[in-house]
Amino acid sequence: MAFRLAVLNDGRAVLLDAGLVDPPDDGGRSTDGATARWWDLGRLTDGRLADPMAAVSASDALDALTDDRGIPAGDPDGMVGLDDLGPPVPRPQKVFGIGMNYLAHIDEMGRAPSTAPVIFTKFPSCLVGPSADVRIVGDRTDYEVELVVVIGRTCRDLDESEVWDALAGVTVGQDISERALQNASAPAQFSLGKSYDTFGPIGPAVVSSDLLDEQYDLQLTCAVDGEIRQDGRTSHMIVGVKQLVAYLSAVCTLEAGDLVFTGTPAGVGDAQGRCLGVGQRIDSHIVGVGHMVNHCV
Ligand code: ZN
């Protein structure tokens, strides 16, 4: 499978080249000027895959439209920057979050490792695109860069060996979290504090597994106003992608477009007493997958 599936602000599903995978040469710290070529999926498929939720369920058809670098045949329909894109999966049925999935992050939060995966929900209404503004709530709104796994077909009771074939691909996500509400009750219930509107930037594209250099060892970073706060590798997850998706599929039937935020590495703001403030800029990057630039308002 080789494709990068994205969605324009007007709702059209498109394929992208690699132009928005990595930030511009300055590391994305200045005004973001990256662009990618796009191809209209509605035009390429006589309307069949114009809807992003139809497209995300059709990995084989997307793969058939592209070469092994994920590039469709023929001229592109135009150029886009991050500002032109919405969330690449706009209407998933389910969005799972995984808590405490990197040891150094468990340490910084002063918690003990769990014997079972820590699973919560981000309600899909929190999802926004890769350059959307994040609305700050109080003084404990925090960033969490994460690898987001995108389910590609209806599936249940997956064996770990079947998981990667069941995925459409992966994308970059920010599991924005309001720590006060997240921890307000006893026992704590994470879901609402992670589901304020705009608390789920994802994008810029769903990148299929064959376009990942090393699917188990991706570097992910988060910078706030240009200062690197998080710098981790997905190989350091406690529960990996195959185990997580198999675990979830033993409980819920998973559908194409369902998302799994797979946990964040160390360096979150709440552990350092410096959460996000209005006017700040969040740069999120997973090498070889994509980058996002979100501003706090
Ligand atoms: Zn998280």
Describe this structure in words.
The chain is of the alpha+beta class. It has a single domain (83-295), classed as Fumarylacetoacetase-like, C-terminal domain (Fumarylacetoacetate hydrolase, domain 2, Alpha-Beta Complex), CATH 3.90.850. It is built from seven helices and 17 strands. The chain has helices at 41-44, 52-55, 59-64, 103-108, 163-166, 179-182, 241-249, and strands at residues 4-7, 13-16, 36-40, 78-80, 95-99, 118-121, 127-128, 141-142, 145-151, 167-174, 177-178, 200-207, 219-224, 227-233, 259-261, 281-286, 290-295. The strands form three sheets. Strands 1, 2, 3, 4, 5, 6, 7, 9, 10, 12 and 15 form an eleven-stranded mixed beta sheet that branches. Strands 14-13-16-17 form a four-stranded antiparallel beta sheet, with no helix packed on it. A two-stranded antiparallel ribbon has the order 8-11. The protein starts with a strand and ends with a strand. It binds zinc ion (ZN). Zinc ion binds next to loops.
| Name of the CATH class | Alpha Beta
Fraction of residues in H or I helices: 10-25%
For the record, the count of structural domains works out to 1
Low-pLDDT regions:
none
Structural class: alpha+beta
What's the total helix number? 7
Work out the radius of gyration.
18 Å
Query: In the CATH hierarchy, what is the architecture at level 2?
Result: Alpha-Beta Complex
